[in-house]
Amino acid sequence: MAASGSRRSFDGNGSVPNCDESRDVTDVGVQTDARVQGLAPRLSKVNLFTLLSLWMELFPKKEQEHRGIDATADSGLVVVQECRVLGLHCSSVQLHAGQVAVVKHGPRLKGCDLYFSRKPCSTCLKMLINAGVNRISYWPSDAEISLLSTDDADPSHQEAILDATAAERLKSNSRIHICVLLQSLGSNMLQFVDETSQNCDFLEKIAADDLDVAEVFRRERWSNLSDLVGRFFVDDEEQHRYVLNKMGLENFCVEPNFSNLRQHMKDLIKILASVAAGVPVLQRGYGFFTRDLQVLGSSALPQDVVRHCIIQARLLACRTEDPKVGVGAVIWAEGKQSQCDGTGRLYLVGCGYNAYPVGSGYAEYPQMDHRQEERQNRKYRYILHAEQNALTFRSAEIKDEDNTMMFVTKCPCDECIPLIGCAGIKQIYTTDLDSGKVKHDISYLRFNELSGVQKFIWQQRCSDSEEPAAPPMSNGCLKRRDEDTAFQCNKRLRS
Ligand SMILES: [Zn+2]
Ligand SMILES: [Zn+2]
């Protein structure tokens, strides 16, 4: 089977100067199956940033924190500087996502690429153009100020049309590239993400507790899909064409562009649904809980926020360069003051996935694991771990006075443990499926020794706790229940 369509580029954790995916991608040979060679499909950077922007729109907020005072929809935003994620944001009651970016980053926005979950309104656009951003990409569904109305006499719809017209005028008079950047997925990407999500450590942990994981995954994926389609897809083709026309995307309205666009959008939504299904919503009381006997330091984040951040890390893992195991890590910190951002006091410190050193060329390093090669030809000495990349390419300093938290999709290995301990991370949210194990070239023996860092592990809430188990939410993206705060289970779990 040919490997055409699978994308491969060796560029470390997003810090190559050239962000253009079409030039950035090194095609693999088409003579052998990529999977046999150990080359799995990867998410392109553009698609990764796009999916992160959609996911950020769903950042859990308290009910009163949702926009609703005007006709503007919530939106998500990824700020990218030289191919590295500088910020993950979402709109708040006071500010649109674009305004959050200006307030947070100011002059640092110059030259940045911005990925929005909706086309930003003219109020945001004029400030971003003024700030000298390099490029603005947006998801081609409904705009920040909704254009979905059938009633032309409706005053709010007239406002939306005026705003869309102003946005187009700003676009045509500026040199900034304001566009839709979507890329078709590699031929087996959807299947690959389904498989890796279903086999991820979070579901493996549930499987070890005798739950039917295939069923849990299928149900969760379906539920996510219906929620995400409802939010990010205009089902009615005529309405979608209308919106695209008003946003200056007439070219997308003609065939085959229109059908292709809709197919790409659906495929990306499916990826997001699968990735999120890898961390199901509080199935039978599953969540991130600590076993520490003494409760130290800051209190834990609410479970829905933890899940959101872990899924950010799972999305990053879809861009792994490790042919066998994708790992993603995200570092957030909680400041002292409430900020204008929809993420409240949380601000991004860094993120990464496992990859070869930045600037590596194709096949420059061994890609084989223990089954295939002698020790000197194995990959492990060359691959940077997700935690290492997140620390190396961080966009903010780790401050002693703030609660800095790492979210990682696999148990940190012995190589990463001292780094995490010394970097000033105060809490870690992860899985301990591999803890205590030696898996060929990587060992996970030191996780339990990690002191001074509160460990919140994916597990079932202990049944002998006095805390009542929270009922599962349908899809907890938007609802926050205070009682879902990761509570400290002050008793050792039965093994
Ligand atoms: Zn706006
Ligand atoms: Zn590691």
UniProtKB/TrEMBL annotation:
Q: Which UniProt keywords apply?
A: Hydrolase, Metal-binding, Repeat, Zinc
Q: Does the keyword section mention Zinc?
A: yes
List GO terms (cellular component aspect). cytoplasm
Q: Which cofactor does it need?
A: Zn(2+)
According to its UniProt record, which reaction does this protein catalyse?
cytidine + H2O + H(+) = uridine + NH4(+); 2'-deoxycytidine + H2O + H(+) = 2'-deoxyuridine + NH4(+)
Which protein family is it in? Answer: Belongs to the cytidine and deoxycytidylate deaminase family.
Residues spanning the signal sequence:
none
Q: What are the GO MF terms of this UniProt record?
A: cytidine deaminase activity; dCMP deaminase activity; zinc ion binding
Query: Which Enzyme Commission number(s) are on file for it?
Result: 3.5.4.5
Zinc: present as a keyword of the record?
yes
- Which PROSITE patterns does the entry link to? CYT_DCMP_DEAMINASES_1, CYT_DCMP_DEAMINASES_2
Q: Looking at the record, which segments are called Disordered? A: 1-24
Protein name per its UniProtKB record? Cytidine and dCMP deaminase domain-containing protein 1
* Ranges for domain CMP/dCMP-type deaminase: 54-150, 304-452
Q: Which Pfam family, giving just one, matches this sequence?
A: dCMP_cyt_deam_1
